[in-house]
Amino acid sequence: MAGVTDQADGQMGRSPRRAEAEALSLGLPALLAEAEHLAATLILGEHGRRRAGAGNEFWQYRPATAGDGVRSIDWRRSARSDQPYVREREWQAAQSVSLWLDEAQSMGFSGSIARPAKADRVRLLGLALAILLLRGGERVGLLPDLPPRSGRNQIAGLVAALGRTASADYGVPDVAALAPRSRAVFLSDFLGDMAPVERALAMAADRGVRGVLMQVLDPVEELFPYAGRTIFESMSGALSHETRKAGDLRRKYLDRLAERKAHLADLARAAGWHFGGHHTGDSAQSTLLWLYRAMEHPR
User: Fold this and answer.
1) SS3 98
2) Strands 139-142 and 96-101
3) What is the separation, in whole angstroms, between the first and last Cα of the chain?
4) Residues 6+ apart with CB under 8 A from 173
5) Distance (Å, rounded) from C-alpha 25 to C-alpha 82?
6) Where are the domains of the chain?
7) Sign of the CA dihedral 247, 253, 255, 261?
8) Hey, CA dihedral for 121, 212, 279, 35, is it positive or negative?
9) Could you give the CA distance from residue 242 to residue 235 in angstroms, rounded to a whole number?
10) Which sign, positive or negative, has the C-alpha torsion 136, 27, 6, 14?
11) CB–CB of 181/208 below 8 Å?
12) Whole-number average pLDDT of the chain
């Protein structure tokens, strides 16, 4: 449930979907400017990018795991223990990072004209994170069909790929293009059916992909400040529920939301991912920093 919404009619001779797409395209330059500004507010030292990978400088020893080649084992270090150890070197090569920014109908919700819609905040966070990663030499792409690439020109590709609002009420991450042992960031409200999300995360984990699940919600969806006669309607209008005692639903709704968050956290933990939450009423800066740090320090 995304909350209480009012469905506006499209203009004569133009569909609501087309009007929405045109409005978004006009706002893309402003979105890019805001994302550039947000990224510029973070001062990130090079120490934040240290991690294991291909390079010349020693980084750390770690216990060998399935998939490690015999040549990677440090036999001198392993001789001092009951298990083999791998000598890792500091990361020096670009990594591939794929973003999934949920743009389903539910993401168009905002509980107040003073706050951005969830989709707007997701685009801002995703684009600002991409700018930071690209500046750091990473390759960044947008699921499902913009492959990760490096360089400033990729930002234009990311901006052009935004705004393809889906017709479904809730989004489903498409991970078919995820490269093995890459990284990923899923930004969504995660309020729909969890089964497709579970399958997508399992497929990503099977490929050795590590990343972040970030649940973006409007404060209204956290507080459920409704009482009396209320009509709850999905953003597409396909789902509707009317009640005369909305206040009686608050406890049950809050319990189910807590269960959903706990389930997302468990899924992320099992897959070796991070899980975080963000409210559209809060500053984007702290969440952007958290996302960046989570990408630099995978589980």
Assistant:
1) strand
2) parallel
3) 31
4) 100, 102, 143, 186, 188, 196, 197, 200, 201
5) 60
6) 16-48+93-296, 52-90
7) negative
8) negative
9) 15
10) negative
11) yes
12) 80
Phi-psi region of 95 (alpha: psi -120 to 50; beta: other; left: phi over 0): beta
Helix (H) or strand (E) holding 59: strand 52-63
Q: Kind and range of the H or E element at 130?
A: helix 118-135
For 16-48+93-296, CATH gives 3.40.50.410
Residues 17 and 265: their CA atoms lie apart, in Å, by 34
Calculate mean pLDDT across residues 213-239.
80
CA-only gyration radius of the chain, Å: 21
Q: Which residues contact 29 (CB under 8 A, 6 or more apart)?
A: none
Tokens of 275: 């899980």
* Omega of the bond leading into 144 within 30 degrees of 0 (cis): yes
Report phi then psi at 231, rounded to 5: -110, 120
Rounded Cα distance, 219 and 115, in Å: 10
How does strand 146-149 pair with strand 183-188? unpaired
58: pLDDT confidence band, cut at 50, 70 and 90? very low
**Three-state SS at 49:** helix
| 221, 3 Cβ separation under 8 angstroms | yes
**Residue 264 contacts residue 215 (beta carbons within 8 Å):** yes
User: Quick one: pLDDT band at residue 231, thresholds 50, 70, 90?
Assistant: low
pTM for the predicted model, two decimal places: 0.75
* Cβ–Cβ < 8 Å for 299, 272: yes
Question: What is the distance between the alpha carbons of residues 122 and 184, in angstroms, rounded to a whole number?
Answer: 15
Q: How many CB atoms lie within 10 A of CB 8?
A: 8
